Amino acid sequence: MEMQVVQRARENFLAGRSRPLEFRVQQLKSLQRMITDRQGEIATALKQDINRSQYDTPLLELIGLENEISLAVSKLAQWAAPRPVEKSLLTISDQVYIQPEPLGVVLIIGAWNYPWALTLQPLVGAIAAGNAAVVKPSELSEYSASLLKALLPRYLDQELYPVVCGGVSETQELLRQRFDHIFYTGNSTVGKLVMEAAARHLTPVTLELGGKSPCYIDKDVDLRVACRSFVNCGQTCIAPDYILCEPSIQNRVVEGIRQTLLFYGPDPKSSPDYGRIINQRHFNRVMALLDGYTAALGGQSDSSQRYIAPTVVKDVPPHARLMQEEIFGPLLPIVTVSDIDDAIHFISEREKPLAIYVFSSNKKVIKRMLAETTSGGVTVNDVMMHYTLNSLPFGGVGQSGTGRYHGKHTFDQLSHHRACLVKSLGMEEVNMVWYPPQNHQKARR
Ligand code: NAD
Question: Cα–Cα distance between 283 and 201 in angstroms, integer?
Fold first, then answer.
């Protein structure tokens, strides 16, 4: 079944159907229409999947997606045009340029935490770049996956952009097929399997993975502002995973977060704005991470609803279990460090994170953090904002991923950049230099 879907997508790609710019624009506009027409259904599916509030869905997924589409529609002619490059003396009268070309059939494998954005944003780039694409949404966000499978063929060309639903075995079956690019979002363990499968066909990959993204709070900062940024259910790849701060401000950080959490009212469990954990397995995993700790804030849970209160744990030892794996849930450990040197050392001796956050009013601290650490992206004095700008490439480095996307970066990621030189035949006299014999006889001619 999967094989036929991929085969059909390839045949349609090879027939050149996805290439004309007008076709790409028309498909992108149709995708835009789908989001406008179906916003309500999409929000309902997300409510069923992760209890996401209706208000959050446009904000967290759809607006960004619509921005991506309108940018691609307005810039496509420019992105797809030949890009002239510098010439040498020998090529001065030739045409020399880089031509972005479609790669072929792209496989997009999405994760459950933003099931629409993580499948459709790469798809926008795949369509814009002239590719066919097979979309495989996560089986964990099942309402969203089946809605996507029902909707996409009504708006997009179904031969070129099919949706395949299913879990591990269906994904593995897909991964046995040959693609021209695989764009995977999810955890690093599966990321390695994807890369292994891709290697068998020498298929390039984009891996949008996760990891532990640190947040350094300097003593020199308005803590009320810093702590306001911790509103989320933690199931975001670039959520701050842990806080680093000096012991002298730890209690004030906890107090600041307590104040922030009042956004949800006295009881987050009854707030329509507070989400739930995706499934029982993840609920148990997150709860197990809390074992043996006393929460400084929160700590309550209700397994029947997969509810975990926003929870802060103080004085977490650097080698505790909470500090080994990505939390991906509403727990926030605080690890104390003696100073900025210690914080930089702490971050640098661990895997390169997807994001780093720094809160400080001190320019020197900010400068040092930026110069002496590395990560996929960084936001200073806020969280996650670098993700929202499609002029910035989004992606990881090292264990947090490979490749980048958003805006033109997605178009470039899913294009081949062909080096083109079209020789001018008017300069044959100059070309004589190259032809044999390469010796003094030529000089005498
Ligand atoms: P998930 O369980 O939905 O898995 C992701 C995809 O991998 C799914 O489509 C699933 O079908 C497929 N899959 C799962 N097991 C597989 C296997 N054995 N073989 C082949 N395919 C398989 O999502 P997840 O991995 O729990 O997602 C959470 C992780 O993703 C976190 O680490 C998070 O940080 C990361 N993430 C990264 C980004 C990013 O943009 N960098 C965004 C969201 C999530």
Answer: 37
Q: Which two tokens stand for residue 212?
A: 């532990």
Centre of ligand 1 to C-alpha 137, Å, is 10
Distance from the alpha carbon of residue 185 to the mean position of ligand 1, in angstroms: 5
Q: Which residue has the tokens 């406008």?
A: 36
Scanning the structure block, which residue is given the tokens 């080994």? 324
H or E stretch covering 401? strand 401-402
Q: What is the pLDDT of residues 417-441, one digit of tens each?
A: 999 999 998 767 766 777 787 765 5
Q: What interface predicted TM-score (ipTM) does this complex get?
A: 0.96
pLDDT in tens, 12-41: 999 999 999 999 999 999 999 999 999 999
Q: How far is CA 118 from CA 58, 87, 95, 114, 252, in A?
A: 14, 40, 39, 6, 36
Burial 279-291 (b: 16+ CB within 10 A, else e): beebbeebbebbe
Instruction: Check if 237 is active-site.
Output: yes
Residue among 61, 65, 113, 405 whose CB has most ligand 1 atoms within 8 A, to mutate? 113
Measuring from atom 43 of ligand 1, which residue has the nearest CA?
A: 237
Cut 0.90: pTM above it: yes
Question: CA-CA distance, 441 to 445, in Å (whole number)?
Answer: 6
Active-site choice (208, 227, 233, 326): 208
133 φ, ψ (degrees, to nearest 5): -150, 135
Q: Let me know if 142 is a catalytic residue.
A: no
- Which residue matches tokens 């805006």? 407
- Between the CA of 112 and the centroid of ligand 1 the distance, in Å, is 7
